[in-house]
Amino acid sequence: MLVVLNKDSMLIQREQDVVPFRNRVKEYAVKIGMSLVNQTKLITAASELVRNMLKYGNGGSALIEVVSRGRENGIRLTFADKGPGIKDIDLAMKDGFSTGKSLGLGLPGTKRLVSEFDIKSIVGKGTTVTVIKWKNG
Amino acid sequence: MDRIPILQMGKFLLVTIQVDLYDRLALNLETDLAQMVNKTGARGVLIDISALSIVDSFMGRILGNIGTMSKIMDAETVVVGMQPAVAITLVELGLELRGVSTALNVEKGMQLLSVKVGSFEDHELEEDHDAGSVE
């Protein structure tokens, strides 16, 4: 069972919000004693997802939670936007696919950096991405 | 508007990124570097990223762009000082820093640049010698 120990949310509306958000994620990761490599992976993933949200979803909200399952602690991040949504999630999750001018590493690359990855999208309504990075995961 | 300073050291340009970059700042750096290479006729660009705690795909793309851009303006680019955790993350992310060379630290980066830029001149000399010996 997943227990939420701490909750914090931030509105992401401009690209200048990205660095403070990354710093906040880092603070929580440090607080639970996550290793530097895992911290870096988590923050990089957060950076990718927040950028996607700004670029394709016109910004949205980001939720940072400290979660625990059994003996394992971790950080869960939820990114929710009210953008146009993703038509074909399978395609978006493919390496090298991009509708923008990016490298197309965003979503599949991000998935590789975290322990758990979930994406839900409704066309016309928005997209929600949830990731978990376990302290030792 | 914030800017990352670009220093000139002989025929090289030196950039030390000391703050976590947001997009606009990174894009400005790309433009400024192209202009500086053009203005100074620099043969090499050294970018120190030792203070960067993360490099995401956007930042990776900017570094790649700088490398490619400098290349077509006849300058080599070396990125130095990448933290181990950043390197591990980049591999997992699947990002190759195409168009740039890397070195462990500023000192090694400078050596690499000198070799890369100097080697062409040496090569020309060698060719002259070869030509001479054939005759």
UniProtKB/TrEMBL annotation, chain A:
This is Anti-sigma regulatory factor. Residues 37-137 form the Histidine kinase/HSP90-like ATPase domain. InterPro entries: HATPase_C_sf, HATPase_dom. Transmembrane segments: none annotated.
UniProtKB/TrEMBL annotation, chain B:
It comes from the Bacteria. Gene3D superfamilies: STAS domain (3.30.750.24). InterPro entries: Bact_StressResp_Reg (IPR051932), STAS_dom (IPR002645), STAS_dom_sf (IPR036513). Residues 2-113 form the STAS domain. This is STAS domain-containing protein. It comes from Chitinophaga horti.
